Amino acid sequence: MAEILSSGEALERALALLRAGDVVAIPTETVYGLAGDATNGIGVARIFEAKGRPRFNPLIAHVADMAMAERLALFDPLSKKLALAFWPGPLTLVLPQRPGNGIHPLVTAGLDTIALRMPRGFGGDLIARLGRPLAAPSANSSGKISATTAQAVAADLGARIKLVVDGGATPVGLESTIVKAEGDRLRLLRPGGIAAEEIEAAIGMELLRGGAAGIEAPGMLASHYAPGAAMRLNAGTVGEGEALLGFGSQRADGWRRAAAFLNLSEAGDLREAASNLFAYMQELDRSGARTIAVEPVPFDGLGEAINDRLSRAAAPRDNTQPTP
Ligand code: TXA
Ligand code: MG
After folding, report:
1. Which ligand is nearest to the CA of 93?
2. How far apart, in Å, are the Cα atoms of 52 and each of 33, 82, 111?
3. Which CATH superfamily is domain 3-203 in?
4. Is ipTM strictly over 0.90?
5. Domain boundaries, the chain
6. Where the protein is mainly located, per its record (predicted)?
7. 3-state secondary structure of 270
8. I want to staple 285 with a disulfide (CB 3.0 to 4.6 A). Which of 36, 151, 227, 324 is the partner?
9. 230-314: what fold?
């Protein structure tokens, strides 16, 4: 069972776990978050695993200050204005990523945008001490309601995590409002802890609402993760000139012929595989092979999400429709 420590006494223990690539449930002003180091793929994969999130949905990167935010993303003037007006607070801004920002691609589900938020209280102190952004979705099992007390977190996730930091009931109790920069306008992606009207008053402009399919559910476009190379899944053999993306210790027939080879996890660890997936797909794509053959990955645990991403990457490339 997870240890519950008050926010006054938990800082060093939380830092040690995060530095070791583990996850920690922390209070924020909105809801409790399940936090991991956003630059550490294993830590980020553990978040998905602990939540049992069936698909990789991008996570919010939490920052300590404006300097950290600007190292991660490119701010347009309106978004900057909102950050200065509402941070720290329950506002999340979706912005273009700054290239080379060190964020693990699992955090953003491989998108070129990133969701940023500066939380109040313990989370902010923790991030400042760690010196790195924290990826954190709400600290609840997938499909359950967000937790607003440490006890609710422990009852739900206690068997799967080591530490819940108790900061009392979260003051906002509702997730952050998410706004996305779109040209010289801003779009409301998720209503939340700051009313849309407050945001509109601050920028002197109405927010765009609704809109193009897929925006609210990024990463759900069938071909979103498609590399330049074709993808051939569940490969039992390797063809001439194919690159091979492996899993586990059993190799596909003819693997020595592969033009390039990377193994998602020699040990067959799905968490390790999840944290390597996007980067390895990108690296094999850069090898110039026309096809990437992929060894079978089991469907249990994080395997479902890995297979989901692999099949999206293998889907017909002209498909821009969201899939169920
Ligand atoms: O208040 C909150 O926002 C809480 C606390 C812990 O900070 N976090 C939270 O995270 O609600 P989560 O994972 O439950 O919701 C994050 C939402 C998801 O709907 C995700 O699709 C969206 O943010 N999101 C993340 N990155 C995005 C991006 N690059 N573009 C569009 N939406 C994004
Ligand atoms: Mg949530």
Report:
1. 1
2. 15, 33, 21
3. DHBP synthase (3.90.870.10)
4. yes
5. 3-203, 230-314
6. cytoplasm
7. helix
8. 227
9. Rossmann fold (3.40.50)
